[in-house]
Amino acid sequence: MIALSCSSLLATLVLTPANSTVELRVLQPFDYHGVRITGGIFRRQLDQAVEDYLRIPNDDLLLGFRKRAGLPAPGHELGGWYSDDVFHVFGQLLSGFARMYAATGEPNCKAKADALLDGWTKCIEKDGYFYYSRKPNAPHYIYDKMVGGLVDMAVYCGRQDALASLARITGWAEKNLDRSNRYAYGQTEWYTLSENLYRAYLVTGDERYKRFAKVWEYTPYWRQYAVGKSIFDKRPDGSQTGRYHAYSHVNNLGGAALAYRVNGDRWYLDTIEKAYAFLQSDECFATGGFGPDEALVPKEQLPRMLESTTSTFETQCGTWAVFKLCKNLIALTGDAKYGDWIEKVAYNGIAATIPMTADGRVFYYSDYNPFGASKVNIDTGWTCCTGTRPMAIADVCDVAYFRAPDGLNVNLFVPSKVTCSVGGSQVDVTQATHFPDSGSTTFTISAANPVTFTMRLRNAGWFAGPVSATVNGAPITLKSDGKHWLGVRRKWANGDRLTVKLPMGFRSIPLVGTSSNPTAIAVGPVVLAFRSGDSPLNRIDLDHLAANFIPSPGEPLTYRLKGDSNVLARPFYAYKADEPYYLYLDKTAVGRIPYRRLKTQGPWKSSGTLWYCNVPGSWCEGTFQGRSVTLLGFLFDDAGRAEVKIDGRPVQTIDQYGPGRDIPRDWTFNGLSPGPHTIRITILPDKSEKSKDRYINVAGLQLHS
User: Fold this and answer.
1) Which H/E stretch holds residue 143?
2) What distance in Å separates the CA atoms of residue 185 and residue 180, rounded to the nearest whole number?
3) Helices 40-54 and 384-395 sit at what angle, rounded to 10 degrees?
4) What is the pTM of this model?
5) CA distance 264 to 255
6) Which helix (H) or strand (E) holds 278?
């Protein structure tokens, strides 16, 4: 793998001020230049994304643009959100290809990005109209992503002509985008526009982008963080809010970060620092994910939402928002503590992603439901997360290292190579590691002549003890700088090797706002998920975690539960599509068989919390052990009747009709013989005369000791 220096051809443009703006960052991201991820789980994910996205036909991606412009339009409809022009992702795909090219040097990514840019540019109308169709959904969102895509094409692919197209579409946007700026209005996500417009200003120096960015600043929302108010207090417009759209209300904080870089007003930095603190204390799961059902809510609501949804974290978009926010915070404050959130969502979000399907369906939601979960791709193609996926995995490259005035700061422990200039000398640093499979990493220095500089590593919050280090086998002391970095300054010679032991240990991480239940278990930054017949919490001593687990030979970070070898704990990222697991462990889930582990015959559908069906003869079946079982369900005003059989013998006809909706109801069957049993629920043709239909629902089984 060739490491590109900061003076490489890729560095045609960089996101440093092209104007009189004072540089406020105390640490500098590499902006992809000179960094390569060379192996490990993130390289595999990046290579998979490159393969998945390169296979999308260019003509299919350009079809609607060409039709709208009256040009020849070969190709086929992609379907899903793409064909419907819903939160259209073309701009994000441009960004994705540009960033994947910058992260890998893969020429096919640049060739595809160039071809798409050329084809799309021909479809811009005289007045600057640029959308896929005449009726775009969320025009603010789509414009924002096009701004980002065009800036990225200029910065990472050297396409300065993209900036001319940016000026044209901005002319249309200045005249036509609605500026009512409704508070928390997620249908267009207008409040995310300022970030990419400020980026455009930094690249071009054109004041129009600075002025237009100012129009879209989300001042009422940001001010609540800056002055220390709860965002769940009465809204600035006088109305009350119980929730916010999660991803976009983290993503828009990038606008505050860029506003600080451009304008220099301290309150912008206060905003993102305090927003980070709030999100960590009140909104984040052990994985670093946030936003069940895509909502930021008061933390008191999180336990109920965790168990009522399968849509716990908007994985691709959420990870992208975290990367950007924390990258800015590290750069602007110099504090490595923000890197912990990057690392959490990197391993438990991006690394846990299952491959995209050919029809554009991606791993949109991570599921942490304590009653059992599995990984699935969303059932709709070409959603927002399809657009964000390549951007997020490519950005691992840009959050791994930071330039310091006196050396190099290491944020992620990943196989990689970085080339930079130190004291006028070019230095290559190669990081070799099997982390997190093992707790150590080694850095090898390549330099033509000895050079003095400081090497720093993030002092991770999960470190289970003191960090030890050697240079060329001799022990050294890494010194803390007060900003969560551990460093050593010395004269480095060609071939010098710095080896660092990263102390990992088991941790129990309760859900925010709770004392111990529900809880997740992690080793270092990696959250474990459990393969088990039911939630294993009652078999785990949370006060002595390490004593519970026996390493599984030949399987890194994989453990058998002492006393029950059928329970397997391994990283959440190791689970494949449709494999059942428990990530959050909850006392109320002990002995519960979740509905998704029950077999069905007929057109049963999942609501996220139960199976439901209204076709007579269709059945749902599960196996269990013991002398007693409870069938869990709900009463509805459109429910019917079902026959319950255990081991093939009818035991009861149940009626799920009730004068309302979502009324909890269970049916218990006692007096069974010890051993295994099978319960089957079959929909009957008859129903209550009062019922509107004959739906039957099954929410799971509860076992009794």
Assistant:
1) helix 139-157
2) 10
3) 140
4) 0.92
5) 13
6) helix 266-282
